[in-house]
Amino acid sequence: MIGIVVSRADHASTHIAERLLDLADWTQRQDDDRVDADGGGTYHVLDRTGAHGDERLELRTFDDLHIRLADPTPAFSERPDYLVFVSRHAGDTGPLLTCHFTGNFGAAEYGGEAGSFAPACPGVQRALLAGFDEHAPDEYGVAIEGTHHGPTALAVPAVFAEVGSDEAQWDDPAGAGAVARAVLDLPERGATVAVGDPERPRHVVGFGGGHYAPRFERVIRETAWGVGHVGIDWQLDELGHPEEHPEVLDAAIGASDADYALVADERPVLREALADRGVRVVGESWVRAVDDTPLDLVASLEAALCPVDDGLRFGERAGEGVDPDDGYRVVDLPATLLAEAQGIDADAAHAAVAAHTVGFETEQAGTRAAGRAAVPVVARDGGSDAAGPYDELVGALAAVLREKYDEVTREGDAVVARTESFDPERARTLGVPEGPKFGALSAGEAVEVNGRMIRPETVSREREEQFTV
């Protein structure tokens, strides 16, 4: 169940609520056990069956401004899976739809408790951002914000869904309607609190950057990872020296349900403090490279090959349920064959390695395969081996060579490439003058010399290259 929290003290909030009620077939109900000011009285329920089964949304309205509310969870007829606070956004950013989690790295000037954080729901934020992208009017931007303000003492995860950035947008039916539609779409988008496996969610807790968080927004949009709380620069300034407030870091990590921290800039003291708490500090490139690769397999391959930060990249076979303990074998990439393929078509060579491996080492910022690779172990006549996948990799690299060579074959422990090429010495012995006629023969065209036709095959020779594999 999704609990939607509306504030009568926030005109944009009540406007979004009006659009929510207009857009779906809600049932009006009455709660006489709770006063109107605290979410009682008239409330609305939307029951429906969607792609993910039965779903319920319940809308309750409160007198106080959202950021000053005590926990609204008890007001709902059943415990929500998460809360969505529909709200205004204020700033100098022009028309904007935005969302964020709540908490305070320092003092609680705008609600909540100091050094406290509401439970985040990164999976809901991902779905909400996608809904904003779909429904935002043309003149509206879409963004996420860093963690700020209250409430913080919430029994269930929560996110703010906002329209801004001033009265023109708070009164705009199109802006309010876009937020309403994004909220109504959450069940259909499969929005859940966690991203990935709920037992080991794929979450980062974030640190650094401005109030609007494009780095973390990119992670949400472009990778399989979710983002929990984000300690933006001004919040970290309020935090002060992280070792003086270790409980605040612990609270932000715990409320994000994160084993990983993405730090947007250097901050060596913060990085050390996070590592001391068992959180792995990673960069955006690590998150992008890992993407949806199983995390146990990532750890295994980093130990067997090299860390992601040193060039480990993951192949397409990593998504096939490979056992991280014994589901792959480390082999040396065929160096000379790989180098020749890269010289012919670097992109095709990289794609060939990626298509046939679980993971592989790279150089040049991850763009060029080099060194070793992990190939999957597959069943073979009652046993298992990695020879087949390795041979497939060799075959894929050999196929790249066919762009340059006339014949490419596998002969034992080598790939042999042959081509017919123009032989200048043979041409000279037949009296062909250097210049345009050399060029024509090299291009496969016959030429006339002293009344005699010289055909290209007459002045060509076979060249053979062998690449040990």
From TrEMBL:
Which Gene3D superfamilies has this protein been placed in? AF0625-like
Q: How is the cofactor bound?
A: Binds 2 Zn(2+) ions per subunit.
GO biological process entries: D-amino acid catabolic process
Keyword Metal-binding listed: yes
Query: What's its EC?
Result: 3.1.1.96
Return the SUPFAM superfamilies for the record: AF0625-like
Listed under catalytic activity are: a D-aminoacyl-tRNA + H2O = a tRNA + a D-alpha-amino acid + H(+); glycyl-tRNA(Ala) + H2O = tRNA(Ala) + glycine + H(+)
User: Known Pfam families for this protein?
Assistant: tRNA_deacylase
Q: Which domain of life is it from?
A: Archaea
Q: What terms describe the molecular function in GO for this protein?
A: D-aminoacyl-tRNA deacylase activity; zinc ion binding
Cofactor list: Zn(2+)
Q: Which UniProt keywords apply?
A: Hydrolase, Metal-binding, Zinc
Q: Which PANTHER family match?
A: D-AMINOACYL-TRNA DEACYLASE
The entry sums up its family as follows: Belongs to the DtdA deacylase family.
> Subunit structure of this entry?
Monomer.
Q: Could you tell me what this protein does?
A: D-aminoacyl-tRNA deacylase with broad substrate specificity. By recycling D-aminoacyl-tRNA to D-amino acids and free tRNA molecules, this enzyme counteracts the toxicity associated with the formation of D-aminoacyl-tRNA entities in vivo.
This one is known as: D-aminoacyl-tRNA deacylase
Q: Which organism is it from?
A: Halobaculum marinum
List the lineage, top down: Archaea, Methanobacteriati, Methanobacteriota, Stenosarchaea group, Halobacteria
**Gene designation:** dtdA
